Amino acid sequence: MAAAAPPPPPTPAPSAPTGLPDSDSTPVGHPLFTRIRLATPLDIPHIHKLIHQMAIFEKLTHLFTATESSLASTLFKSPPFQSFTIFLLEVSAHPFEKDSNFHSQSFTPIERIFNLDHTIIDPEAETFKSGINSDVVVAGFVLFFPNFSTFLGKPGFYVEDLFVRECYRRKGLGKLLLSAVASQAVKMEYGRVEWVVLDWNVNAIKFYEEMGANVLPEWRICRLTGPALEAYRDAI
Amino acid sequence: MAAAAPPPPPTPAPSAPTGLPDSDSTPVGHPLFTRIRLATPLDIPHIHKLIHQMAIFEKLTHLFTATESSLASTLFKSPPFQSFTIFLLEVSAHPFEKDSNFHSQSFTPIERIFNLDHTIIDPEAETFKSGINSDVVVAGFVLFFPNFSTFLGKPGFYVEDLFVRECYRRKGLGKLLLSAVASQAVKMEYGRVEWVVLDWNVNAIKFYEEMGANVLPEWRICRLTGPALEAYRDAI
Fold first, then answer.
1. CA A154, CA B71: separation in Å to the nearest integer?
2. Which end of chain B has the smaller Cβ count within 10 Å, N or C?
3. Average pLDDT of the segment spanning B87-106
4. pLDDT tens digit string along B186-224?
5. Beta partners for B198?
6. Which of B55, B186, B214 lies nearest to residue A223, judging by beta carbons?
7. For residues A143 and B150, is the Cβ–Cβ distance under 8 A?
């Protein structure tokens, strides 16, 4: 269940009001080249920083205890999509070089061009630089894993976190990340994609409903954690 | 996320008002011998019937499309606890024979004796018979799988379904099943156990809170499924 992390409420870029940007369109104005690829253990420092930013955004830094070490010991232990999986969002002002390292049988990176009215100034470009000799930066991520519907008798995906760094928001990148998960679910013949949202976050709810999701009004999350969970150590 | 399946609201048996039954106590009255073990592919026919009963209980049979075949093709594909995992609850009027088949490095079956005021008449004993030459019957199950908290930087368990057959309810067996998952989470140093409940199911909410869980008031589940999900097939 979500670590108190409501996805930001991105909205499609004005230049692509009816859906996802067209990869075949000729870049005009200020093109932002974007790529979604599977994260690797080498990305853990960036992922850790993104999660920390998410905790700040949520005003929940007191709950943030993840370290690079704890992430390294729990992520990337299974093949992609079989357990915890991360899609990383990278952006660049220039077309991506072909990087065969990121192509796998599991997932071919998704590339899209967003045509923006203005160039984005990224004050953290150096911190989130991806690779050595390029202007590619990490702009966001989505972490998801399989869940299971007993009624459908098949798996789905649960999206734990969706995060786009501040200067890249409201351009359709959140929609691109979530769409990538939905598309992967369809490819795998999974039955559902689910996530959670705060009931007062009307912008996010509107955004998700426009993407085709239903918000279930009656279900509440129960959480057993901390000392209350620890009490079960010797209870059985 | 839960397949519209709120766990039943069991309450501890009168003979064990302060917690789980003591395995060392001498059986008095009408002992019910219970065992929690990992389910195996051989249990699929029983599991399928239990899920169907759950759909009837929830008045959601129109959503029930699982078949023994769909369960067989999606469950038991990973080692226990790494993906979708089922604990099966078996009961008997007699002590369980030692069955080394059910002992594994992953999980040692849990046995408890419940001392009841009356013998339980199980009208479906024949249907849910477990094994050939015994009076052991399958009484319920819990299906759970790992989830992940990015803030904690570690996994937890998500409980998708908890179900006890009608004649075995209100004796503490639901609590025993959920406690077994919580205990396993603690053993694996996981950070949380989570599940969902319907907001109007006050008995279940009270029961879960008594078990130490918090019910989170603000989070809502978003679900993308059916044609709305299918629309993402070629969207990216």
1. 7
2. C
3. 87
4. 999 999 999 999 999 999 999 999 999 999 999 999 999
5. A219
6. B214
7. yes
Sheet with A192-198, strands from edge to edge, namely: A110-116, A30-38, A85-92, A137-149, A154-164, A192-198, B219-225, A214-216
SS3 labels along chain A:
CCCCCCCCCCCCCCCCCCCCCCCCCCCCCEEEEEEEEECCHHHHHHHHHHHHHHHHHCCCHHHCCCCHHHHHHHCCCCCCCCCCEEEEEEEECCCCCCCHHHCCCCCCCEEEEEEECCCCCCCCCCCCECCCCCCCEEEEEEEEEEEEECCCCEEEEEEEEEEECHHHCCCCHHHHHHHHHHHHHHHCCCCEEEEEEECCCHHHHHHHHHCCCEEECCEEEEEEEHHHHHCCCCCC
Q: Where are the beta strands (DSSP E) in B93-173?
A: 110-116, 137-149, 154-164
Of A19, A148, A186, the CB nearest to B145: A148
Residue B143 pairs with which residues in a beta bridge? B86, B161
Average pLDDT over residues B30-45: 96
pTM of the shown model: 0.87
A219 vs B78, B183, B198: nearest CB: B198
ipTM of the complex: 0.87
A78 touches chain B (CB under 8 A): yes
H or E stretch at B194: strand B192-198
pLDDT of the residue at B7? 45
Q: Is the Cβ pair A155, B84 closer than 8 Å?
A: yes
How far apart CA A203 and CA A178 sit, in angstroms, is 16
Burial class (CB in 10 A: 0-12, 13-18, 19+), A79: exposed
Report yes or no: B196 at the A interface, CB cutoff 8 Å: yes
Residues of chain A with pLDDT under 50: 1-19
Q: Is the CB of residue A113 less than 8 Å from the CB of residue A33? A: yes
B23 touches chain A (CB under 8 A): no
Number of other residues whose CB lies within 10 A of the CB of residue A93: 14
Which 3-state string (H, E, C) describes B40-79?
A: CHHHHHHHHHHHHHHHHHCCCHHHCCCCHHHHHHHCCCCC
Q: Helix, strand, coil shares of chain B as percentages rounded to 5? A: 25, 30, 45
- Give me B130's structure tokens: 């477990």
> What pLDDT was estimated at residue B26?
55
Residue B28 has pLDDT above 80, yes or no: no
Q: How many CB atoms lie within 10 A of CB B120?
A: 16
Chain A contact probe: residue of B34, B150, B214, B223 with most A CBs at under 10 A: B150
Distance, CA of A217 to CA of A201 (rounded, Å) = 14
Q: Please state, in angstroms and rounded to a whole number, the distance separating the CA atoms of residues B51 and A156.
A: 17
